[in-house]
């Protein structure tokens, strides 16, 4: 005798909200997929804050669901297996279930198998849980051969990290930057061909960190970006171009820039030509000896020179054989206690 369907929708809103608060994250997501009627019910549950993370590496395409106080859920979209065109792995803590799909049958169906690609899973979870995407980490060498980067379309994330040991092509980098659209922090730790076409709209971030040489980028290009914070390591920039950058700033360019930190790839052997007004020691009377970069680090500016923009903004700079820094003060007094000094 078949069991009668449970009249879930006949319960009061308060009753089913109470029941759903007892569900763990995995059960709540599973429940939302039972039927169209159940689809939006979990959205009324107030859960702990969580976030989504995407990783494309030699392990495949992984979507992590992280909720404070609960085990991390790991969905894997491994679509590079030739014998099994689509393969999914579901892991919660140490429990693992793997499934291979083919054209004729599905024996076990983990939740990730409901989605055609990682982007559709992200869209569903963002609507269901009201979570955001914290990070997208991509090694281009491990992009699945069958993946169309358009399937990775992510409207917004906090961090986009592109890394790898081989050189990334112009087409690959452009496709990644176009499809992972709004990012707060762009980290690039991979060699890029020198003929990469600089398009300001692709680098639409607030913070930019480049850990490899960037011959495709000049300091003049920075004034065309909305980015406010720049860090370049192993940079091919020259000390004289850094001085020219400051002169352009004094002329009114780059008003939104907060700081520029450059670690030269090779020691500078030629002293740059520095206009006298950039080395005026009487610009400001008192300021902190350290500039706060973030909640963990500060930059030691004890020996830096101060310059003042016509708008009233004060900046501090210093050039050395192996590094250059330029920081704009929003508050001349910074509390640098419990922070560690930044190392070039």
Automatic annotation (TrEMBL):
Superkingdom per UniProt: Eukaryota
Name this polypeptide is given: F-box domain-containing protein
High-level lineage: Eukaryota, Metazoa, Ecdysozoa, Nematoda, Chromadorea
